[in-house]
Amino acid sequence: MLSGRRYRLELDYSQAELCETFGDICRSVWNTALEQRREYRRRGVWMNYVPQAAELADAKRDFPWLKDAPSHVLQQTLRDLDRACREHGTFKVRWRSKARWSPSFRFPAGNLIMVERTGRKWGRVKLPKLGWVRFRWSRPLGGEIRSATVSRQGRHWFVSFLVEDGTATPGQHAMPNTAVGVDRGVKIAATTSTGDFHDRPYVTEGETKRLRRLQQRLARCERGSNRRRTVLAKINAITGRVRDRRADFCAQTAVGLVVRNAVVVLEDLRTRNMTASAAGTTEQPGRNVKAKAGLNRVILDKGWHMLELALRNAARTTGTAIVLVNPAYTSQTCRACGHVDPKNRESQAAFECTACGHQDHADVNAAKNILNAAGHAVSGRGDLGTGRSEPHGAKPPRGTRGRNPRPLGRGGSQIRPTSRPV
After folding, report:
1. Is the pLDDT of residue 258 over 80?
2. Where is this region: Disordered (predicted)?
3. Fewer Cβ atoms within 10 Å of its own Cβ: the N or the C terminal residue of the chain?
């Protein structure tokens, strides 16, 4: 089984400069190759990794600064772009902005990477063109290295090893007859059908006040100034801690759920669509924009998608099945009698059926409906077994739609970076 191991690097000045250079070159190759792909798509033809890799080799003769980065690192950048375009579409892949994108690059050849432990808290890794680099030995490596990714978060650099740990996913869960439904909410991050509530604050009151002051100071800073960069670094330090706490919460919650349950049922929530802006356009301005923006912030803060990813990752070690069900009417349906009515949910937390009078916590009732939907979702319309069907034309859960991209041939433009990245 492939697993990740992440460590903090201790770079000297020259190594940090080289990492910045590698990141800038990879960013330039990504943006140039993406523009080439988009131009090909506008002509109705297809461009993939193989011709772009060949053109990259030719481009090195005209732009010698491309040789500063290892060849297989640049080729891996093109592979990552090719996968992103196939999965998301050429025009939906984002540019890598110097201001918004944190530098990162991958060494795909695990046989060229050497790791040694030099002490109780320190180790070192030998990377192409970087030489030996020290890192904090915070956990055992535990497997054969397949690749290494170097990335920067704030002012620190990290290395992530992809290792083959020699384990396999169990064929059967240790408790095969257990199942749980999980309702993700804006007030409580995760509520289970057994009545357990999983939530925690990710930012302290003091950090909230300090972050607000820093954002006010940032608004008064001149773009491109040293003061603005200093303020941004302080803001990133706070948001980085919040992000780490959220990831830690999702990982711990996911491990607890998959260890105790052979099946974990979630709603098929498309958080990217749910958190889209409601601002609209100049011709058709949106409605309730401020309320929608506040809801978007809460959804993103609770980490709905991150929890799903953590569950899928943790399920590999226990053999737990992650099931997605149609989310329609799960919060309006009575678990006791199956009556569907928007008035059933009196408030965010209170649920009282208008037909039978059944009372329960609203999130627990929804989690029970989610679990029930996994056992009754046999209709072609995706019925919940409560007399209501999903809206006509709704998309099936993720992972059930096949993708078969159709190659359209080659065009004539080539990868030609305009200048050295700055």
Report:
1. yes
2. 378-422
3. C
Kindly state the DSSP code that residue 90 receives in the 8-state scheme.
Answer: G
Closest CA to 59 of 78, 40, 86: 78
Q: What is the DSSP string of 251-311?
A: HHHHHHHHHH-SEEEEE---HHHHT----B-SSSB-SSHHHHHHHHHHHHHHTHHHHHHHH
Percent of residues, the chain, with pLDDT higher than 90: 64
Question: How do residues 117-154 score in pLDDT, each as one tens digit?
Answer: 999 999 999 999 999 999 999 999 988 999 999 999 88
User: Mean of the per-residue pLDDT values for the chain?
Assistant: 86
Domain ranges of the chain: 11-105, 107-164, 179-324
Q: Which residue has the tokens 């795909």?
A: 108
Tokens of 179: 């199942």
Q: Each residue of 289-345: pLDDT tens digit?
A: 888 888 888 888 999 999 999 999 999 999 999 999 999 899 889 988 889 998 888
The catalytic site residues sit at 183, 267, 363
- Predicted model pTM: 0.81
Query: Cβ neighbours of residue 381 under 8 Å, at least 6 residues apart?
Result: 389, 390
Q: Which of 276-280, 321-325, 399-403 has the lowest mean pLDDT?
A: 399-403
Report the distance separating Cα 296 and Cα 100, nearest Å: 20
DSSP secondary structure letters along 29-45: HHHHHHHHHHHHHHTT-
Contact status, residue 317 vs residue 167, Cβ threshold 8 Å: yes
- Specify the pLDDT at position 164: 92
Question: What's the whole-number mean pLDDT along residues 60-64?
Answer: 91
Distances (CA, A) of 295 to 87, 189, 393: 28, 14, 26
> What per-residue confidence (pLDDT) applies to 100?
83
Residue type present at position 31: N
Are 180 and 263 in contact by the 8 Å Cβ rule? The answer is yes
CA 114 to chain centre: 29
Runs of H (alpha helix) within 168-277: 205-219, 226-260, 271-274
Return the SS3 of 365.
helix
Q: How far is CA 152 from CA 68, 69, 105, 209, 374, in A?
A: 19, 17, 10, 26, 41
